[in-house]
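for the writeup, i need someone to sanity check this before i put it in the appendix. the sequnce is what the collaborator sent (i think, or maybe the updated version? ugh). structure was predicted straight from it, no edits. if anything looks off just tell me and ill rerun, i have time this weekend
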Amino acid sequence: MFLMCIVHRINNQSAFDYVTALVECLELHGSNNYVNIVVRDFNCLKIKWMNITAPSDYVNQLVLNWAVNCGFVQHVNFATRGQHTLDLVLTDDELIVSHMVENAPIGLSDHCIVDLMLNVKCCPDIKHYRYDHDKKRYTWFNTDFEGFAQ
């Protein structure tokens, strides 16, 4: 099984308050029983994920220290807005992401799309659905989310 957290900072929230609440929430709700996946725009443009370094300011250090101390890997290796990698995919299982590519932004967004594929086993006993963009309808598919725990 996995737990996916999609994070978002509201416009009028300070960066200090945002990362403090974010890290507290992730520490509280993260699980040792599941693969944890955390995605979205973190607005931490000064973190250098390839080198695992950040300036000494509170915001960047708190996010980086949380990720490193909790065993997370950052998978996005391309700029997602301008020259910066703001949109992140952090997981505590480095093999869960099997493929990732950059796609053009939707509408007026100034962030590219991070299109990714997860390693998920299929099982005929569990039914879930997804939206089929080509046929403009919902379709059923089978996924063994329990398999993540094994």
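The chain is about 20% helix and 30% strand. Residues 135-145 have pLDDT under 50 and may be disordered.
thx in advance!!
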